[in-house]
Amino acid sequence: MTASEFKEYVKANGVKKAAREVDVVTTGTFGAMCSSGAYINFGHADPPIKMQKIWLDGVPAQAGLAAVDGYIGATALDETNNMMHGGAHVIEDLVRGKAVRLRATGHGTDCYPRKEIDTYVSLRTVNQAVLMNVRNAYQNYAVATNSSAKTLYTYMGKLLPEFGNATFSSAGELSPLMNDPYYRTIGIGTRIFLGGTQGYVMWEGTQFNPGAPRTPNGVPKRPAGTLAVIGDLKQMNPEFLKGLTFTRYGSSLGIGIGVPIPILDEDMARCCAVTNNDILAAVFDYSQPTRSRPVLREVSYAELRSGDIDIKGKQVPTSPLSSMYKARQVSEVLKSWILKGEFTIQEPVQSFPKDRPLRTLDVRTEREAT
Q: How many helices (H) and strands (E) does the chain have?
């Protein structure tokens, strides 16, 4: 069953029967996932070049991996100071089958004598193109609002002054890690839906924080687990991978991710029965430019999805940065693959840590850092 179907089944039949009758629950999420990008092997030119600087359609990509390997990050911005165009848009263009302009320079060596190249590449012409994202599918996240007198432009979207709006970014009860809060079935090696094709969890995601405070049912109330994922960009579908632009902030990549959760026992079924009423998130004032912003209040995802929440006695309109329509679509496609035998469940080869502390960056001396 999809996560939506399973929750309805539990309501009608109870957890015990659901645990006996249902084998797998398919989850889904679709939203902006900034810590994403793709590595590409362009192939060697004649004469060959050792690329030290790389641009794809004017967006700088990371060189220094090897002679003709590069990595383009989703949030890298066009060097013409065009904040509307970034690495995420280049990645989407490639998935749509477009050719993009490759420019590269090198210092020239005996084995790589060429010093520059200006050409066009596509997914058809390159050797490998692999989506490799170090932090996706956040397990819960902040709700953003703004108490100041000016409009703020952030990765959480446009925040209107004087609590004019509040934004949030999660598929809530459909989201993968909300349905497996203790990572019992999700770990390194888990096969997933990624960008319209099959991919894998390759590691815990960056900023992985399993020690975040939790509700009595085990769901984190703050940003907690994350996934590092990998998949073949050549097989992906632009329906589930979109270049996004946040006004006066920059670019990000909208990605569809779905994870199948085997119902191992009644506890697992109980976790997958979680609803938006059970999931709490913290509301933060983004006009406070500090790392430890005060929590204005906690709200449920049911409240957030209702269209407005109360903040200090004011009814504040809410809006999601994630797409419930796409999240449902991801879970439905994943279910169909499993039913057709096109997707098999992969047990993790290694579990995630349960007590990894989340560290922060401070100004330190060398001795303090050591």
A: 8, 25
- Compute the distance between CA of residue 359 and CA of residue 351 in angstroms, rounded to an integer: 21
Q: Confirm whether pTM is higher than 0.85.
A: yes
pLDDT band at 360; cut points 50, 70, 90: confident
Place of tokens 């097989």: 235
Cα–Cα distance, 134 to 341 (Å, whole number): 29
Would you kindly state where each structural domain of the chain is located, as residue ranges? 3-34+135-339, 43-126
* Partners of 144 in the β-ladder: 167, 284
**Six token digits for residue 318:** 């809410």
Above pLDDT 70, what percent of the chain? 100
Among 85, 84, 89, 90, smallest CA distance to 121 is for 90
Per-residue model confidence as pLDDT tens digits over 183-200: 999 999 999 999 999 999
List Cα–Cα distances, 199 to 93, 261, 346, 356, in angstroms.
20, 15, 11, 25
CA-angle at 241, arms to 118 and 45, nearest 5°? 20
DSSP alpha helix (H) spans, 149-295: 176-179, 266-272
Known active-site residue 111 = yes
